[in-house]
Amino acid sequence: MDLATSVGLLVGIAVLCTLVLMGGDFRMFYDIHAVIIIFGGSFAATLIRFPLSAIVHGMPLGAKYAFTLSRLTARDLVDELARIAEVARKQGPVGLEKIEADDPFLAKGIRYIADGYDLEFIRDNLERDRDNFLMHLTEGSKIYRAIGDCAPAFGMIGTLLGMVQMFSNMSDPSKLGPFMAVALLATLYGALVANLVCLPIADKLHVKVLDEETNRTLIIDGILMIRDAKSPTLVREMLLAYLPEKHRHEEGEPVPA
User: What is the pTM of this model?
Assistant: First the structure.
């Protein structure tokens, strides 16, 4: 689990709940009209912006990866691929059938080698898999960003509607309070949905897209070199180029000046 996302969201909710309870109770901050305008309006605008298939795939995938971490870091992948290359060198492709990988994408590449698929087939399938995954993850980031953009705008629309209704009923003081609540709470809900949930998730997914692109490209290159019977040392040295300079050396090994 990505603790940064979870902790940040929980801290934000805790701060809001504390402030609400210090000045009253939760009933003061709930209005069904404001809920409808924010969530209904944002959902409608998102449906207009994106195809339904993109929303169906992108939103759940985005929510999943915003709260999860990759099973292996890029450094772990380099070490794992070097180990796999060593097994393939000593036992041949058949020896890879006994290897269990934590990363599903890596496991697929190992299975392709063990099954004896040719180099071009492995390259085409893994690259297509990577590109489709990154496309859906990018869609998820765009969808959450779109909701984050829409929510404050619909909050303003809710505020304007509440103000119009309030000024239209100045002769009835009993209606002024509810309409003012709609006006203020719509803006509050829009700001919270955008700045506490959707925009942070969109930014987090953008970072995840870059990380996943690096990791999956690293895996593809490693798998292709293993399929081509490259030595474990060469596999490691070639894949270390994907890592930042400070991460290219074993722990405790001096970094060249």
Answer: 0.81
pLDDT digits (tens, 9 = 90+) for 207-232: 999 999 999 999 999 999 999 989 99
Q: What are phi and psi of 85, to 5 degrees?
A: -60, -35
d(CA 124, CA 148): 36
Measured at the CA of 98, the angle between CA 96 and CA 100, to 5 degrees, comes to: 95
* Euclidean distance between CA atoms 62 and 69, whole angstroms: 12
Q: Are the C-beta atoms of residues 195 and 46 closer than 8 Å to each other? A: no
Domain boundaries, the chain: 1-30, 31-244
